[in-house]
Amino acid sequence: MGRQVAIVSAGFSEHASKRSDVSMPELVNEAIMDCLKKVPSVDPNKDIDAFVNGNMPAFEGANIPELWMTDWMGARNKPLMRVTTGGTTGGTVAIAGYYNVTAGLPGIDTVLAIAFEQQSQGDTATGLASVAYGEISILNTLGISYETLGRLLSAGAAIGVAAYQATNYMSKARITEEDLARVVVHNRRMAAKNWWAHLRMPNLTIEEVLDTPYVQYPLRYGMLCPASDGACAMLFTTEEKAKDMCDIPVYVNGVASVANETAVLGYDGSGSAQVDPSAQIGAMRSSELAYAQAGISFPRKEIDYAEVYSPFPNQELMWLEKLGLFEETTAPQMYENGTIALDGDLPVNCSGGVNSTNAIGASAMERPAVAAQQIMGTADNQVKKTVHTSIGHGWGGSLNLCTLMVMSDEPQRKWR
Amino acid sequence: MSKRTERKDMGYIKKDYVKTRTMPGSWYLSSYKYKFNISHMQPFLKKLKEKKLIANQCSGCNRVFYPPRLVCGQCLVKPDRWVDIRDTARVATYAIAYLKDAETGEVVERPMVLVHHDGTDTCNIAELHPDVDVKDTYIGMPIKAHWRETTEGGMMDIEYYDPIEDDAKDIK
After folding, report:
1. Is any Cβ of chain B less than 8 angstroms from the Cβ of A273?
2. Is A206 on the interface with B (CB under 8 A)?
3. ipTM exceeding 0.90?
4. Percent of chain A whose pLDDT exceeds 70
């Protein structure tokens, strides 16, 4: 079996809709410096053995960015690889960092994982079109015109598919838009206490969210995630080295990355095998795998903090149920009675979540990074209770890929 | 700006950054060539011309795919059976798009639906009859395919879906 892996530090760059003051390598460097600042005993030249890097391809219009920003990462003459899986890129980069350490390769103990995105530099619509172009062009050959498809998918953005998911979830859980707005208010108010978050709105109210126009029913303009520029870095190392590097190392006890069949569009224009886009069997399976590795039998009782990937408010509710934290269709009640609040029983997304900060490549990594910081006790918006076990979740692909990382302040002994 | 597309500032703390030099560039997507195999679609498209619907079925898990698929995601085998299916369907899920009319400039509400054909296990993207009121759309609404007068053997031979009377007893 592999070695026990620990997270010793996590760092962020400042997030904004247009980081016009920095170039992409400088943005990455900002996050790395923030990460290394917290572990002064680590010498970046000597102690870091390998690098993992990733961002969403085609969003900035720059390919192989990892090669021309090598100097800014300090990765010269060191093993470097890039992984990218669309929306879950960050989650996969973190998992790749974990794999690098747990594999036990000679001479590779400490790995720096970096995920970033500078969306203002490129055209997100073109990037998304390049993702879906293959699917769309075959539908064109089958007789559906591009204009019709654009109308059907509402210009191809992620909201087009998320709106279907939202309608389904709302009808299943019997909730109204007010419940969705409540999730948004929670996220944005939490983000206001977080120095690196993007949409910081300390005084947002449910009425203000419901006052904004619809982008696509049931999602309103005020409920959508922003497009941010930002980067995130995490430092993974072995159990032995972690004790010298920081006070409270966070042990990674379970990881999973599971894909289901594609939803909504399907491949080759063949439609979706997921009749209900909010069923998310992939998420349930990923949680099963990761919890089994971590030895978690009762997620609701054993997990103290959750960071879920929720660009849209309905997804936050959905993931909490699919990841086994709440019973089906009960998540909206937990937002009403304050179970998920900062001082609640199971705090959720106290960093503001993806709903407030969405640098696509980085956001799935920010989830485990914040969850790790909550265990270390160094998070900006630290929860009131002591966090022993936390999860960081990522979602992406064609509505179908889920990554999950389970962290704890104790190393896992059960399966090793 | 119409009221529906008005953007409101919700008390967002903004920060201004110094600007660096930027250089414009473009990425021309149409210069890429994507290849597909649509041989498995041919029987389906031929039947569409006759205003009939068929779907293929996986012999491993008995799932019925409409439109036909090249491979079953569960069993990793090629679906080899062809089955006839009805033209009635149900709304699997829907969303309402707010789109500007190109001619008048007015924002129109259109329900966009995923339809789940009776007897199949997949759903695909489609449109409802333009006269359907968005407030009347619901999940599980029974609908029926509306064919074009002249069919050409393409997916757009089904112009849109007409709502039909709901005779299910469990929905009130």
Report:
1. yes
2. no
3. no
4. 89
